Amino acid sequence: MEKKITIIGLGAGDLNQLTIGMWKELKDAEHLFLRTKEHPVVGDLITEGISFTSFDEIYEQWDTFEKVYEEIVEELFKAAHEKGAIVYAVPGHPLVAERAVQLLLGQGMERGVEVTVKGGQSFLDPIFAALHIDPIEGFQLLDGTALKREEIQLTNHVLIAQVYDQFIASEVKLTLMEELPDDYEVFIVTAAGSHLEEIKKVKLYELDREVTLNNLTTLYVPPVKQSETLYHQFEALREIIATLRGPNGCPWDRKQTHESLKPYLIEEAYELIEAIDEQDDDHIIEELGDVLLQVMLHAQIGEDDGMFSISDVIRMLSEKMVRRHPHVFGSVKVEDAEEVVSNWNDIKKKEKGMKEESLIQAVPKQATSLMKAYQYQKAAAKAGFDWKDVQPMWEKVKEEIDEFQEEVKHAEDKTEAMSKEYGDILFALVNVARFYKIDPEVALAGTNQKFARRFQYIEKRVKDLNRPFSAFTLEELDQFWNEAKENGL
Fold first, then answer.
1. Which listed residue, 56, 315, 377, 467, has the most CB atoms within 10 A of its CB?
2. Buried-exposed string 222-250: b where 16+ CB fall within 10 A, e elsewhere
3. Residue 238's pLDDT is what?
4. Distance CA 64, CA 255 (A)
5. Is 30 in contact with 43 (CB distance < 8 Å)?
6. What is the pLDDT of residue 212?
7. CA distances in angstroms from 135 to 158, 159, 431, listed in the order given
8. Which letter does DSSP use for residue 439 in this model?
């Protein structure tokens, strides 16, 4: 017995849109299955006395559409093995937005069933006609049941199919509202091209309210025309930076080089650290933007020079992240964060083809002295040159303080000698910080900010009393300091 599934499309509307060939297939089918009986043509099937089996009940049994499609496929293969040749009819065209059809085509051969797809008008042609849009301008067809914001191309005509019900409409609305203003106007198109055709314009936030939705519903999102609406997208930022560096751009931006921008990158990084310390989300957003600006400017300079672009930067970073996280993107197993770091360093060493060179050479030459001390000690610790507990570190701090005090008393060239000994104190204190997993650069930055806040409070108190600084004793100024401390500054 021949085992065959013939898949046909019911078209996008009523019987008038159905081809003669498809109508003949429906009438001649000995065993007819419908994905859903919620379609205008089904009434004509009933009138003609054509019997069929629909899968509407399956939609009620599962929480996800993927499970629904999988069960429909299982039922169809089972029917083909039991009955032989069967016909499966779906709304629109079988190869447009029909996941179950793709599953049937992919599994047919291994399941011993011949799967054939025949025609049927998709909903696209009548929708283009109903909305008066030309797809050559660029259009995108997306699945409402699996919509991802990163896939949406807002400068195109966007059609979102399979918006079956209010729940899906709500999910689609929330996804679009991450990319578009809440009051952006969209169109709900139902049964395009048939006598049931309806086009309703709504604001995005109203999409799932008081709107009739069914399996003939498609959402149309018109192309975005206002550039400001796209300012949150990466490509918009890239274009802005390219314009600033272009022939008619900003004179300051145009003359910048990698070298001239170095101080700004350091400055913006420290301002971001300050915002993080303040736990001010709005400030963090602003300062992250300033850091990103520096990255984009450097990338644009590379592109202008014909050396590299931001795409090269992103590609190299993506490859590195995947390569250095085999426990996430591969099969490597790790127990904890320490093992992750160990693997990272091993992979890094292999990538760079590191020879047996000094561990100190890996520390950036442009790092601050405090950062270098911290990194030098970390590098030495990797080689085993490190104390196992903190007590000897504290003893070393006391030893360096004693040596500094001796130099203060006896050194002939006190400035140079004291500077060396004072540096030893700082270096020893950095070792203590490292033991307690404290970044000394970050710790000192926090103390600097705290001092600035409290001293500014003192300045304000002095100004409020309308007296010069010289009119206050140290004890009085110290009292203001304590007030600032008590006020949480």
1. 377
2. bebeeeeebeeeeeebbeebbebbeeeee
3. 96
4. 56
5. no
6. 67
7. 10, 11, 66
8. -
Q: Taking the model in full, what pTM does it have?
A: 0.66
| Lookup: tokens for 106 | 């992919």
CB 43 within 8 A of CB 34: no
SS3 390: coil
For residue 347, the model assigns a pLDDT of 75
Nearest by Cα to 283 from 294, 293, 273: 273
Q: Strand 4-9 and strand 85-90: pairing?
A: parallel
Residues 6+ apart with CB under 8 A from 290: 268, 271, 272
Considering only CA atoms, which of 312, 310, 273 is closest in space to residue 295? 310
Residue 212 CA to residue 218 CA, distance in Å, equals 12
CA R_g for the chain: 35
Over the chain (489 residues), the average pLDDT of each successive run of 10 is: 90 80 90 91 90 91 88 95 94 88 94 91 88 94 91 95 87 95 94 83 88 78 94 94 95 95 89 88 96 97 96 94 88 79 74 61 74 85 83 92 86 75 92 90 86 91 89 90 87
In angstroms, the CA 240 to CA 229 distance is: 14
217-221/157-161 β-pairing: antiparallel
Residues composing the chain:
489
